[in-house]
Design a protein that fits this description.
alpha+beta
């Protein structure tokens, strides 16, 4: 009798653990979690988005798209970085030279691993900090050299 009771407890615990694990797997992470508005620097919301370079740039509130539209050039570097961090754009070449990237030259820039054509380009970006580093990799010129916006799925 004790063995049956013990077995029932073990089976019940296994069922509870399995159900709990399945519930955790069912929860999907918000793809915009941690993505920051290029205008304010605050957490973005999916409903506050604007079309940009054939993709979407997400903002934190309804007011930021207006500010973005008034001076897109001012916010372009951070918007380009957001396109990459959200997976809407992918690296195709070195953002400094436009040449093919080489393995082992990667640097984290704004939370994204970026590869370079050579150690010289990699070193230039690795030494830079903050906005200087962002501008080297995600300015409009660098973005045009090194990244491609993915085709929108219809």
């Amino acid at each position: 009798m004790k063995i049956r009771s013990l077995l029932a407890v073990v089976v019940a615990a296994a069922v509870a653990i399995t159900a709990s694990l399945n519930a955790e797997e069912g929860k999907k992470k918000d793809p915009l979690e941690g993505v920051l508005c290029p205008v304010s620097g605050k957490q973005v919301k999916a409903e506050a988005a604007v079309d940009y370079k054939g993709a979407k740039v997400y903002m934190c509130c309804p007011g930021c798209p207006t500010a973005f539209a008034k001076d897109t050039a001012k916010f372009a570097t951070k918007a380009n970085a957001q396109l990459v961090s959200t997976g809407q754009a992918e690296q195709a070449k070195c953002p400094i030279s436009g040449g093919a990237t080489k393995e082992g030259t990667e640097v984290q820039v704004a939370g994204t691993e970026i590869a370079f054509c050579c150690n010289k380009c990699q070193g230039k970006v690795a030494k830079a900090e903050g906005d200087d580093q962002l501008n080297l990799v995600f300015s409009d010129v660098a973005f045009a050299k090194g990244f491609k916006v993915k085709a929108e799925k219809k």
